[in-house]
């Protein structure tokens, strides 16, 4: 294994993003490989949160309009910070709600069923919450049988041609993941959007596992809408407020879930009972913004602006390439299945490996200082993050995994997931 350590150390010495690691709180003696579930706290995010707390202390209720970043406009301010990561215009991106609420808000707004066009197209591999929300919309409209799932051929990935083939005249709305949460496959959003629009279908994407790790060009691709969380690669903290993108060509539409923060800000405090919908992305807000769950993003997103998403993407690929090379060379004999695409052009920011003892392996890794996560029924996700993981972190992760397999340490932990996995 010595050659791999030397290779990792050489890569680290040439890493143009290595200084960003110092901006994060790194657990001593641990190798954090779960940034695709919850990113680490940065010092910039911590400072931003403390600054907003200080605004409350100094200004009280005047903090809504006073201070460096008035809370009344905070969702829009952070939306402007996120816009470069989406490839959207600043008028199209907003920090608001949770991912699931934003799915309800966008899908319900765009879902205008007719007798012949009433189905919602999803995929068989998507995160359950997306499916729950879409099915809920269909149930409420009386089209419970209208959910169409594109099937995976191998149980891990999706074929672009299969998705396109399912786009018929009965489909009203499509919601797909940008990156599959298990395998890490990136879908061809540009091509899928082009084909959806040829059929007159509204199409949106869930960016939860792509934003902050993969560049996007949503406006250039003419995507209709997108939603995402901010606590994974964007390092916004547990429960951080979600994000939403809606192409400005749709801002004339009446939003489905109306609330007073979706009102025109100039008339919001007139307190009349007629909804005066905001003319930009602000219309997708519902209630009062969760200020303290927004605040860390102010600092976190500053790091992305400084590092640049293209450089982040390149290092992310180099990290996962290095991990895959080590796994292939050192772990072939242990029947570990690499599920993530080997083709780096369609691989997101994490690696998924499969094994019949995956739950036990996951717990054994944690006992040895590696923090991954388990995904049912038998997979471990490992996510080396460009801003704070090193190549030496990757080396130690695979080295420890090899030791666990050599010693069969996973047998000591059983093979059942925890309540939270």
Automatic annotation (TrEMBL):
Pathway: Amino-acid degradation; L-kynurenine degradation; L-alanine and anthranilate from L-kynurenine: step 1/1; Cofactor biosynthesis; NAD(+) biosynthesis; quinolinate from L-kynurenine: step 2/3. The modification N6-(pyridoxal phosphate)lysine is found at residue 232. Pfam families: Cys_Met_Meta_PP, KYNU_C. Homodimer. Pyridoxal 5'-phosphate binds at residues 99-100, 127-130, 206, 209, 231, 260, 288. PANTHER family: KYNURENINASE. Belongs to the kynureninase family. Belongs to the trans-sulfuration enzymes family. InterPro entries: Cys/Met-Metab_PyrdxlP-dep_enz (IPR000277), Kynureninase (IPR010111), PyrdxlP-dep_Trfase (IPR015424), PyrdxlP-dep_Trfase_major (IPR015421), PyrdxlP-dep_Trfase_small (IPR015422). It is an enzyme of class 3 (hydrolase). Catalyzes the cleavage of L-kynurenine (L-Kyn) and L-3-hydroxykynurenine (L-3OHKyn) into anthranilic acid (AA) and 3-hydroxyanthranilic acid (3-OHAA), respectively. It catalyses: 3-hydroxy-L-kynurenine + H2O = 3-hydroxyanthranilate + L-alanine + H(+); L-kynurenine + H2O = anthranilate + L-alanine + H(+). One of its GO terms (molecular function) is kynureninase activity. Keywords: Hydrolase, Pyridine nucleotide biosynthesis, Pyridoxal phosphate. NCBIfam families: kynureninase. This is Kynureninase. Its cofactor is pyridoxal 5'-phosphate. Its EC number is 3.7.1.3. Coiled coil: none annotated.
């Amino acid at each position: 294994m010595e050659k791999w350590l030397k290779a990792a150390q050489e890569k680290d010495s040439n890493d143009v993003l290595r200084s960003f690691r110092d901006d994060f709180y790194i657990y001593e003696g641990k190798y954090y490989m779960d940034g695709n579930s919850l990113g680490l706290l940065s010092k910039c995010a911590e400072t931003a949160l403390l600054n907003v707390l200080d605004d409350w202390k100094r200004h009280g209720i005047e903090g809504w309009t006073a201070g460096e970043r008035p809370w009344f406009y905070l969702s829009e301010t952070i939306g402007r910070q996120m816009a470069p990561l989406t490839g959207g215009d600043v008028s199209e991106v907003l920090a608001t709600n949770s991912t699931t609420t934003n799915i309800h808000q966008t899908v319900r707004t765009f879902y205008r069923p007719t007798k012949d066009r009433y189905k919602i197209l999803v995929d068989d591999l998507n995160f359950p919450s997306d499916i729950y929300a879409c099915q809920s919309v269909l149930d409420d409209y009386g089209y419970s049988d209208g959910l169409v799932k594109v099937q995976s051929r191998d149980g891990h990935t999706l074929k672009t041609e299969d998705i396109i083939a399912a786009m018929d005249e009965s489909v009203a709305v499509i919601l797909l993941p940008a990156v599959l949460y298990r395998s890490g496959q990136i879908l061809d959003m540009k091509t899928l959007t082009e084909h959806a629009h040829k059929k007159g279908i509204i199409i949106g994407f869930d960016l939860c596992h792509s934003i902050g790790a993969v560049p996007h060009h949503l406006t250039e691709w003419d995507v209709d809408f997108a939603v995402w969380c901010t606590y994974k690669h964007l390092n916004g903290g547990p429960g951080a407020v979600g994000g939403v993108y809606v192409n400005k060509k749709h801002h004339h539409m009446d939003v489905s879930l109306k609330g007073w923060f979706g009102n025109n800000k100039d008339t919001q405090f007139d307190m009349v009972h007629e909804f005066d919908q905001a003319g930009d992305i602000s219309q997708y807000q519902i209630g009062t913004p969760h200020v303290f769950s927004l605040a860390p993003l102010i600092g976190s997103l500053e790091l992305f602006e400084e590092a640049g998403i293209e450089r982040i993407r390149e290092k992310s690929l180099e990290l996962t390439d290095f991990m895959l090379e080590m796994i292939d060379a050192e772990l072939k004999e242990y029947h570990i299945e690499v599920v993530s695409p080997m083709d780096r052009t369609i691989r997101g920011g994490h690696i998924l490996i499969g094994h019949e003892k995956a739950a036990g392996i996951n717990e054994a890794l944690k006992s040895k200082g590696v923090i991954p996560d388990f995904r049912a029924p038998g997979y471990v996700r490992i996510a080396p993050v460009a801003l704070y993981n090193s190549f030496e972190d990757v080396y130690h992760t695979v080295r420890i995994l090899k030791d666990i397999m050599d010693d069969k340490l996973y047998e000591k932990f059983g093979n059942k997931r925890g309540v939270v996995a």
